[in-house]
Specification:
Number of strands: 13
Distance between the termini: 44 Å
Number of helices: 15
Order of helices and strands: EHEHEHEHEHEHEHHEHEHEHEHEEHHH
Shape: globular
Length: 387
């Protein structure tokens, strides 16, 4: 059997990877090794490794990062702690392949550690562009440290090849998040209301806002602009999902707590909502507001508006249901009013999600199995695109 390690550091990433985890776990030729790190092991962010265990999986190894601060210095030190932990884990587990998703710093550390250990990496969601975030550089760096690639659109596949990766190792498979929407049985409105103690008895929006990590000291002012608009939209009920462990993320989370405390009758906040509850809630929301990748990738499948604020997701392929606006109060309010208007809702009734693929998780697992069995040369020849 070939041992396949999956490293996960956040609640959202685990939710996306779940179909891949399921397929590996039931594959007679593959052995699953789950490694939890980052926010999964943090009390502040919900100790979400317990969600993995409650889904029936074994977390084979826990790698602490000690996320005690969201300053650049604190994050760098946390990355160092993770790398020390992974040095031992990879040496002891000796996986045949490692599967990584996305572009966070926890995943960058895992990719770098695997490269030094000469373990091939399969990278999901490479080739994408987010010009307002350090994730941009991290994502492309992970691609260069990876052996095979699973892009979510053809444009992203071409971009990975542009980075010098061999075309026969780059596959366009769609997005796992979209597959998750289509394949999972979501909660009914009554089930969800009882589960989260929140009633969808008025027009409801989902708000997810993260720091723009390539901008200095903008988290407070940008999120405050959004909060001021939401304060004026008295008719709306609001579900907040809190920011990740990024620089200045705690500022946003504190502002969320303060807003919810003053607006208990119409708002609620979650450090970790979980994939099932999050997707189930989107069925009953009228729009998603913020700057999360989920608003770009998964939300269009629900045929509701995404109000994408600022530059954090700038450069991504977007559906027609995504409305972009500057992080300024009047622009945010204008975008929200447009997204909730009857004309816009009519316009996006049949919107196509550009991230939709065919059996995405099956394609990923079958390809990883093939390369794990036949072996793969880690000496990569740079692929030059002819002029």
């Amino acid at each position: 059997m070939k041992k396949i390690c999956i490293v996960t550091g956040t609640r959202a990433e685990y939710g996306l990877l779940k179909p891949v985890i399921d397929r590996i776990n039931s594959d007679e030729e593959l052995e699953l090794c789950l490694i939890a790190t980052g926010m999964h092991l943090s009390t502040e962010f919900g100790l979400t490794y317990k969600e993995i265990e409650s889904d029936g999986y074994t977390v084979n190894r826990k790698v602490e990062m000690l996320l005690s601060a969201d300053t650049p210095s604190g994050i760098i030190k946390s990355m160092g702690v993770e790398m020390i932990g992974l040095a031992d884990v990879f040496e002891e587990e000796k996986p045949d392949f490692i599967i990584l998703l996305g572009d966070r710093y926890e995943i960058f550390v895992a990719a770098a550690s695997a490269m030094i250990h000469r373990i091939p990496v399969a990278h999901i969601h490479g080739g994408e562009s987010t010009e307002g975030s350090i994730d941009e550089a991290i994502r492309h760096s992970i691609s260069k440290m990876s052996a095979i690639h699973f892009a979510s659109t053809e444009r992203y596949r071409r971009r990975i090849i542009q980075l010098g990766e061999q075309p026969e190792r780059v596959f366009c498979v769609g997005a796992l998040g979209v597959e998750g929407i289509k394949s999972r049985k979501l909660l009914s409105k009554k089930e969800l209301e009882n589960n989260i103690n929140f009633d969808f008895d008025a027009e409801t929006v989902m708000v997810t806002f993260h720091p723009v990590t390539l901008e200095s000291c903008t988290a407070s002012s940008q999120f405050n602009a959004l909060i001021n608009v939401l304060d004026r939209c008295k008719e709306l009920k609001i579900i907040f999902t809190k920011a990740n462990a990024d620089t200045d993320g705690r500022i946003i989370n504190q502002m969320i707590d303060e807003f919810v405390q003053k607006n208990k009758h119409r708002s609620i906040a979650f450090a970790s909502m979980g994939q099932l509850r999050y997707l189930s809630a989107l069925q009953f929301c009228s729009a998603v507001i913020g700057n999360s990748s989920s608003g770009i990738i998964e939300v269009p499948s629900f045929r509701i508006a995404t109000i994408n604020i600022g530059d954090r997701q700038k450069g991504r392929v977007c559906a027609e249901s995504v409305i972009h606006c500057e992080p300024i109060e009047d622009k945010i309010e204008e975008a929200i009013r447009l997204g909730l208007s009857k004309d816009f809702r009519k316009k996006i009734e049949n919107v196509k999600n550009p991230y939709e693929g065919v059996e995405t998780s099956k394609q990923i697992v079958e390809t990883v199995r093939k390369f794990a069995k036949q072996g793969i040369c880690l000496k990569k020849i740079f692929f030059d695109i002819e002029n």
